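Sanity check record (used in CI):
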Amino acid sequence: MHWLRKVQGLCTLWGTQMSSRTLYINSRQLVSLQWGHQEVPAKFNFASDVLDHWADMEKAGKRLPSPALWWVNGKGKELMWNFRELSENSQQAANVLSGACGLQRGDRVAVVLPRVPE
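Expected output for Acyl-CoA synthetase medium chain family member 2A:
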């Protein structure tokens, strides 16, 4: 419950009010949060399970395009990609890795890049 107090404190600083419904969590989820244990699926792919899901919702018109990535450089220049655009960029990167690099499904890769969206 310490985390709930911290969130309530932040809401007070931001001048917003929290209702008891704002953070409704069932008891099983609460126990997981308290002990730091999260249920982890046997196989999880962030790009397909999360990014593509939201991109498909945008494509189908079930959700308005909203920022999935919003980057601002030191000079105030902004770059904003919605989920569909980020999904397309992710697929392009995967195509480069599978084509030029010869990687196949199931191969694991670690990529270290600077903190820029390109």
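The longest helix spans residues 83-99. If this sentence no longer matches the regenerated tokens, the check is flagged for review.
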